[in-house]
C-alpha cells in the first residue's frame, strides 16, 4: 500500500514494529486521557473560510529564528529512533532536510548529537533534559560546537510519569536486549548518561526558573522552553528572557488530564506572543490541524509520532514523505480558507465548538 496520509503510515508502522517498541512510541501516561484529548481538541475547532481571495501563489514558507523553512512544520524531539530504523536520527534528519523542514534532536537520541548534526545541513535544535548540572553544561557546549542553532529545555519532567504500557511490556528488560543494537554503541554519549550507560535520575524536581540564567552562562544559543501550558508560566518565561515557548503536554506522556496544547495556545499567545516565538506540538495529524494552530497564533508546529511511523516504513524517504503530506494538506487548506501565506492565517478563521 502506498501511504497517502499519516494514518496509512501509522497502520504500516504498527505492522513492522515489535509490540514493546510500538507501545513505547504510541503510549501515554496512566489512562491516556491527555493522549486522546490532544486529537479530540482539534476536532472541536471549526474553520470559517473566506472566499474570492487571490490564492494563486499560495505559499507555506516561513522562518524560525531567522532560518527559512518550506513549511511551518518541524520535528519534535522523540527518543530512540534507532528502534524504528537502524540509522536512527541520522536517517530522520536527512529526511527532514530533504523536505525543507527542521528538527529538534532528542537528548535521548540513539546516535550522538555530533553524529546527527554531521548528517544535516539544515535547521537543527538540541533538546535538553537536565539530569545533573555538569552533564547539562557539557551537552549544551557540545551542541553549540556541533552546529545546533538553539537549545530546547524541556521543563515538564520533574519526574517520569507512570507509563503503564511500558510497565506491562517490561520495557526495561526489553531495552537491555534491544538497545545495544539500536544505539549502535552510542548509548552513553547519546543519552547524556554516565560512561557505563546506566540511566541517571532527572534533576527536574529541583529546578526553578533560575535555570534559564544558569544556561545563559554556558551557551550563547537561543533558549526555547518546551512544556508550557498556562499563561502564568508563559509570562514567567518571557520575564526570564527565553526566545521561544513550545506549548506542549509531552504528547500526553507526562501529567494525564493536562489540558490539550491547542486549547492552551490562545491564552499563551495572549500572554507572550508579542514577546517571543510560540510553537506547538501534540496531536497534529492533518494539514488542517497545522492551519488551526497557526490561526490561533503559533509560529510553527512540531510533529513526533508520525515521523517515527515514516521512519519505520521507509527510512529517510518515509520521514520526507510524512512532512510533504502535511505540507500539501496545509497548502490545500490555506487555499480553501482564503489565506495566500501563513501570515494571513488569523483567529477570525476559527470557531470553537463544545461537546460538553
Can you describe what's shown?
This protein has 356 residues and is of the alpha/beta class. It has a single domain (6-345), classed as TIM Barrel. It is built from 14 helices and twelve strands. An eight-stranded parallel sheet has the order 4-11-10-9-8-7-6-5. Helix 6 (133-145) links the parallel strand 6 (123-128) and strand 7 (151-154). The longest helix has 33 residues, at 305-337. It is globular and about 60 Å long. The relative contact order is 0.21. Residues 181-200 have low confidence and may be disordered.
Helix content: 40-55%
Tell me the count of domains: 1
Beta-strand content estimate:
5-15%
The CATH topology corresponds to: TIM Barrel
CATH-derived architecture:
Alpha-Beta Barrel
In short:
The chain is of the alpha/beta class.
Keywords for this entry:
alpha/beta, 8-stranded parallel β-sheet, 12 strands, two-stranded antiparallel ribbon, TIM Barrel, 356 residues, 43% helix
Topology:
Blueprint lengths: L5 H11 L2 H8 L6 H11 L1 E3 L14 E3 L2 E3 L3 E3 L12 H12 L2 E4 L7 H6 L4 E6 L4 H13 L5 E4 L9 H5 L2 H12 L4 H5 L18 H7 L6 E6 L2 H9 L4 E4 L13 H12 L4 E5 L5 H9 L4 E4 L1 H33 L12 E3 L4
Parallel strand pairs: 4-11, 5-6, 6-7, 7-8, 8-9, 9-10, 10-11
Antiparallel strand pairs: 1-12, 2-3
Amino acid at each position: 500500500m502506498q501511504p497517502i496520509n499519516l494514518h496509512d503510515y501509522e497502520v504500516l508502522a504498527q505492522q513492522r514494529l515489535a509490540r514493546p517498541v510500538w507501545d513505547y512510541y504510541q503510549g501515554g501516561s496512566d489512562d491516556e486521557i491527555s493522549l486522546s484529548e490532544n486529537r479530540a481538541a482539534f476536532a472541536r475547532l471549526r474553520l470559517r473560510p473566506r472566499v474570492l481571495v487571490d490564492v494563486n501563489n499560495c505559499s507555506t514558507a516561513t522562518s524560525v529564528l531567522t532560518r527559512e523553512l518550506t513549511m511551518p512544520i518541524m520535528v519534535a524531539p522523540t527518543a530512540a529512533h534507532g528502534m524504528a530504523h537502524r540509522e536512527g536520527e541520522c536517517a530522520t534528519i536527512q529526511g527532514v532536510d530533504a523536505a525543507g523542514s527542521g528538527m529538534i534532536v532528542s537528548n535521548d537520541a540513539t546516535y550522538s548529537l555530533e553524529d546527527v548534526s554531521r548528517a544535516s545541513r539544515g535547521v537543527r535544535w538540541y533538546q535538553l533534559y537536565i539530569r545533573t548540572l555538569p552533564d547539562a553544561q557539557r551537552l549544551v557546549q557540545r551542541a553549540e560546537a556541533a552546529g545546533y542553532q538553539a537549545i530546547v529545555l524541556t521543563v515538564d519532567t520533574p519526574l517520569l510519569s507512570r507509563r503503564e504500557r511500558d510497565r506491562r511490556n517490561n520495557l526495561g528488560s526489553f531495552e537491555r536486549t534491544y538497545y545495544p543494537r539500536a544505539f549502535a554503541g552510542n548509548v552513553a554519549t547519546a543519552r547524556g548518561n554516565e560512561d557505563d550507560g546506566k540511566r541517571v535520575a532527572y534533576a527536574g524536581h529541583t529546578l526553578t526558573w533560575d535555570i534559564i540564567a544558569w544556561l545563559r552562562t554556558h551557551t550563547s544559543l537561543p533558549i526555547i522552553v518546551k512544556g508550557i501550558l498556562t499563561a502564568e508560566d508563559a509570562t514567567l518565561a518571557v520575564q526570564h528572557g527565553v526566545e521561544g515557548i513550545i506549548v506542549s503536554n509531552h504528547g500526553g506522556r507526562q501529567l494525564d488530564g493536562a489540558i490539550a496544547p491547542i486549547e492552551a495556545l490562545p491564552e499563551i499567545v495572549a500572554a507572550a506572543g508579542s514577546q517571543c516565538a510560540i510553537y506547538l506540538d501534540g496531536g497534529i495529524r492533518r494539514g488542517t490541524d497545522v492551519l488551526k494552530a497557526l490561526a490561533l497564533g503559533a509560529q510553527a508546529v512540531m510533529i513526533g509520532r508520525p515521523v517515527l511511523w515514516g521512519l519505520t516504513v521507509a527510512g529517510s524517504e518515509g520521514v520526507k514523505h510524512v512532512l510533504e503530506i502535511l505540507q500539501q494538506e496545509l497548502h490545500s487548506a490555506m487555499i480553501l480558507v482564503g489565506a495566500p501565506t501563513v501570515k494571513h492565517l488569523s483567529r477570525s478563521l476559527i470557531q470553537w465548538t463544545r461537546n460538553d
